[in-house]
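Hi C.,

You asked whether I'd gotten around to modeling the 91-residue construct. I have! Everything is below, sequence then structure, no commentary in between.
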Amino acid sequence: MRELVTIRQVSSIKPIVGADAIECASVDGWSVVVKKNEFKPGDACVYIEIDSFLPLQDERFAFLAKNKTSCNDREGTRLRTVKLRGQISQV
């Protein structure tokens, strides 16, 4: 069975050139843009896979509201691969 949300471990953190507030974390080979100093290598994190639907009623996902869509009459957003400050983020 496929799990769309899992607890994983941050393997490394690297800076993003020209970015003051974000950095790139590596999680099981995936590149993920995160807030600066929020994680360090070895930290546990919640990993949500690409194409997962997140309900906007949950305020933890409110920052994703600009990409609204609906699924089964619920308003939310679908996670997509994006590029932030030239860095691909796969979550």
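If it helps when you're writing up: The CA atoms of residues 16 and 87 lie 7 Å apart.

Thanks,
B.
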